[in-house]
Each structure stands twice: as C-alpha cells, then as structure tokens.
Amino acid sequence: MLTYNPFTLENKTILVTGASSGIGKAIAIECSKMGAQVIVTARNEKRLQETFDRLAISTDQGHLRIIADLSNEVDIERLTNSVQNLDGLVNCAGIAKPQLFQFSNADELHEIMQANFFSAALLTQKLLKKKKMKKNSSIIFISSISGVKVSYIGGGLYSSTKAALSGLMKGIALEQASKGIRVNTIAPGMVNTHILDEGTITPEQLAEDVKKYPLKRYGEPEDIAYAAVYLLSDASSWVTGTDLLIDGGYTLQ
Amino acid sequence: MNLNEFINNFAEQFDDTDKSEFNADTLFHDLDEWSSMTALSIIGMVDEKYGITIKGDDIRSSETIEDLFKKLQEKK
Question: What is the distance between the alpha carbons of residues A117 and A150, in angstroms, rounded to a whole number?
C-alpha cells in the first residue's frame, strides 16, 4: 500500500507527562496511533494504567508507563534515568484552581507554580543535561491562552504559570537550536477536560462562557493532540520558538 | 459561627452596596453589584475566615445570605 504521511511518528519515542487525563491522555493515545513508542507518566497509577491500556499498537512499539510525582525532585531524577533517546517530550502535567488573587497566599502560589512550571522546567532541564533528548528532537510545553494573551477572573496565578512557560520555551529554543532540538508551546483555549470538576465554576457559567468562542464550542483534547502530533513530527522541522494558538477563535475579539 | 458576623463578612466583599442592604434574608443574587467577581470573593472569604471550601454550586443554590450560612454550618 502506498502511504504518504509527513506527520508520521513511526520510529520515534515520545515521553508524555500528565498522561493520566485530559490533554496529556489524548496526546499519548494519538501519538501511539501515529506509530510512536509512547512513554506515559503521571502520579495516579490506576488512571495512568487506563491511558496505557488505550495506547495503540501497530508495530510492536513497546510502550512504557512510569509512575512519578513531578513535584518531587527524586522522582524527576528517577524518571530521567529510566528513559533514553527521546525524539519528543510533551509537558502536559498541570492544575487549575480559580482563586481571586487577593485571597491567595504563599502556599497556593508555590503549589500552582510547582505543578505547572517548576516540574516541567526541571524535568526538561534534567533530560537535556543528561543528553536524553536526541538531536532534532521536539519539546512541547502545554501553555494556555491565559497568560501571555488573556486571563480571567480568578485566573491570575494560573495565567502566571503559563506565561512563565512561554518565556522558558523561547530561551530553551534558542539554546538548543544548534542541536536541531525544537522547542514550542501550544496555547489552547478552554478544553473539555476534568480539570475544573473540583472547582468553583458552575455548569451555567461554563455554558455562558462557551458563547464567547466564535466556533461555538470548547476544544476537545484531540484538537490539541493533533497539534502536538504536528510539532513532534518531521513536518514541523523548521518550527521552533512558536506558540501555537488553538482557541476556536476566542482571542480574535 | 455566628450569623451576624457572617453577614458582616459577606457585606465586606462589596464596595458600592450599602451595609444596610445586607440582612439574613437579602436575596444577594439580585444586588446590582453581584457578579462572578463578588461570587469568587465570597468563596475566598469563606475559605479564609472559616476554613471551609464552598463551590459555585453552593452559592448558586442559595437564595439568601442565611441559606448560604446554613450550608456553611453543614460543612463545618
């Protein structure tokens, strides 16, 4: 069969963090469907197993799962030591907690900065230092429209963490360019995940919010996963330092 | 936990509404100043002053300030 597919991930090994749910889970599954060997990591063993069981096997890729709490440097070290020759890294792990800034405190600031920024930064740093990222590999941080572009009431801390990722991405993109390692962020608008299930937002508020999207819906995790596939594939080999906006038109108006 | 004190704390989250408008039976959703911002302020205040986590649903399903106060007591 004649196949033409510039977006193939065959013969690539991709590490996905936050793979037990939401965007991370969709990215792991789509990467496996595109032929990659996928290494999934997350804290929750049961939920990570659910992702692992859904990974596609077309060519005996030998997917792996590694339990790790990325807020813990020992775990980051262990994770780094148990992988090698990565063609791709997708930093998806993160949390969102609506909170008015004036009611926030140092602990909460640390918690969200740790979960959304420090963990991804430290993991990426160690993988680069230990030469676990191959030449011409691709690093992705899942950022957000919140931060560099917009924010929302109760979103000050979350937006700060995402803006920090954008700055980090640009610096690393410059530093790693000589090795052909590409570094990009994806900036999604609101995506249908369970990230807000425990939060303070009501279904009515969500329904009202959807109306602000010109394409009249929130994103699905797969909408973001397809962008990750592009940035991980050789189709994007001249793309580095970009912040790929995927927001149903939200920031147009 | 005291209802009058809660009403005071509730009123403090507002800038332009007179304190006299806040009573146990105030229908707070109808206040001109009520918004997603004041709702999040109430959630923040309850967490800070009472150590209780309430959700948007708790606020939505409360009509009066006393309704919300009762929900706090149940969660205490």
Answer: 18
Residue A14: alpha-carbon gap to chain centroid: 12
Residue A2: pLDDT band (50, 70, 90) is: low
**ipTM of the complex in this document:** 0.73
* Residue A238 lies inside a defined structural domain of this protein: yes
**Chain B contacts of A154, Cβ < 8 Å?**
36, 40
**Sign of torsion over alpha carbons A232, A238, A240, A246:** negative
Q: Is residue A7 part of a domain?
A: no
Answer whether B27 touches A (CB < 8 Å).
no
The phi, psi pair for B34, rounded to 5°, reads -70, 130
Percent of chain A whose pLDDT exceeds 70: 96
Mark whether A226 is an active-site residue.
no
Contact A103 B41 (CB under 8 A): yes
Q: Could you tell me the pTM of the whole model?
A: 0.90
Q: Could B56 and A205 be called an inter-chain contact, meaning their C-beta atoms sit closer than 8 Å?
A: yes
Question: What is the set of domains in chain B, with CATH numbers?
Answer: 3-75 (1.10.1200)
Contact A142, A162 (CB under 8 A): no
Q: Does A106 touch chain B (CB under 8 A)?
A: no
